[in-house]
């Protein structure tokens, strides 16, 4: 039966299969069953074939994130290199590349918003709209009724351009989820073949050969131009809406603070990472990128530092601002902006009567802690103290077998490590670090640290003793202790090589098991898995997962003998910056700085003489008595210990 629709399309209705195929100018719309649901018999291709053929082409960069909580989240720590082998867990490819651009537009229609029928209506409307421009697309569907449309592009588009188009479409179609294209760092989506949280897979609504042809012959630039021109009104409306909304670079944005050399402001770093900026302050991407470059120069970074961050994907937001240029012109454009930034800073310095354009980037902040107040005869012999601390570390290593492989057990091991790290820094077994210091060192909340310290000092054979409770601006005074039962074994054991670390910033994201495994490997040439299990006191499954995470970020590698070793060329600090962890540390530092200010103000009202231990009263600044925030902290060296 042959029919002609109003647009001149030819509808070939096959009665035996009840399938409608729409053809026009050699383009074929996906097959559609009479119930309105597009499918293909599952025997035509396997999910593994669909994944291998399409995922590498559609992804913005060859990276994929796995979900270990049944598809609820796709955390950064579970990101892997993208390969053609189908993952066994729900997997979402990264939409944007290191340069802040994407190779395809990902449209996600969510059935939880208004039901499957509404999703189908929106999908058909979008397909008709794409068809009107001669665009080609790929469609798949999930077991819960959601649908994806992928629009491959011959020329990659920037984060801002892609976001504008998707947000504009979102004003037309209710079930379209705009969030994957609103996040440069974390935007990701499942592609055809990916396992689904409810069982099954993302199934193509067309033949694999047709989908592969669309992916290999993407839409040319004139089709992209036609689509954006048609959406000009909605794009302008979406931009106007962003102007009306208050700009918040982060949910826990902190007040502005002075930054040492080599540290840009949080706002500038977030702009460089995410590509998002306050449109009331910067009218265009060009204005925003110039502000970032100027901020980098003012912070003492070199041009090569900015280039490295752009090329390695640490600052994809800034890279996206230069994507408007051809590849060979991007670095020259960056250098022009750098010259303008340095000239501006020189002019500003001259106007202020200051001939120094910027502080030297080699002038690092002082990382040596001050001497603890009060006399301590033992600390007068730092050599003997360091020997005792290393013996205490042996006792810690022996006693760690008693801590369960639970979140609580691993957290307490890290709290003890933070005390050991503090002891080495001060050259004394006596430590006057408050809970906020250890919170920064361990990545925990300070109230959680307080609970762990209380539990540790009340154990049968404690490794730490509370000598004096907090008073005024002074924190609790703790002493490292080697229990009598462990003294002989600890003294006879060989001292462990290397430094003792609490949670280095990058492992806030990668997890505590990864921190323990990395620590074991960095103090050894190479280790088989059985030895790593013995040293870390973790289960074999936890060690395997930690190694998988570390290998995915090129922190460890397996040699021919099936032993594992640290990849020394990978910088923990640079990776922490790439993962955005340093900003989380900075936010925590800022909160605790405000706590210290509040505490001093409260002390000034209630203490007229020497600072003393105070009990909470009705106007106490916190809900429960926490003791004074640290006057100085492990946080003062948080960034020097990042790597």
List the defining traits of the structure above.
23 helices, globular, 643 residues, alpha+beta, 12% strand
Write up this protein.
With 643 residues, the chain is an alpha+beta fold. The strands form five sheets. Strands 1, 2, 3, 4 and 5 form a five-stranded antiparallel sheet that branches. It has a five-stranded antiparallel sheet with strand order 12-9-11-10-14. The N terminus is likely disordered.
What is the element layout, followed by pairings?
Blueprint: E1 2-4, E2 10-14, E3 19-24, E4 27-28, E5 32-33, H1 47-58, E6 63-66, E7 79-81, E8 91-94, E9 101-109, H2 111-114, H3 116-132, E10 138-141, E11 147-158, H4 159-170, E12 176-177, E13 188-189, E14 203-204, H5 208-216, H6 221-230, H7 232-244, H8 266-274, H9 285-298, H10 303-311, H11 316-321, H12 327-351, H13 382-399, H14 407-426, E15 430-431, H15 435-442, H16 446-457, E16 464-468, E17 477-480, H17 484-492, H18 506-510, H19 512-522, H20 529-536, H21 540-552, E18 556-558, E19 564-566, H22 572-578, H23 581-606
Antiparallel strand pairs: 1-2, 2-3, 3-4, 3-5, 6-7, 6-8, 8-13, 9-11, 9-12, 10-11, 10-14, 15-17, 16-17, 18-19
Helix content: 40-55%
Give the rounded overall mean pLDDT.
76
Ranges with pLDDT <50 over ≥5 residues?
1-43, 247-262, 355-380, 609-640
CA-to-CA gap between the ends? Answer: 70 Å
Q: Could you say which overall geometry the principal axes of the C-alpha atoms support?
A: globular
Helices, by number, come to 23
Main β-sheet, in a few words? 5 strands, antiparallel
Percent of residues in β-strands: 5-15%
* Secondary-structure content class: alpha+beta
Radius of gyration from CA coordinates: 29 Å
Q: Number of DSSP strands?
A: 19
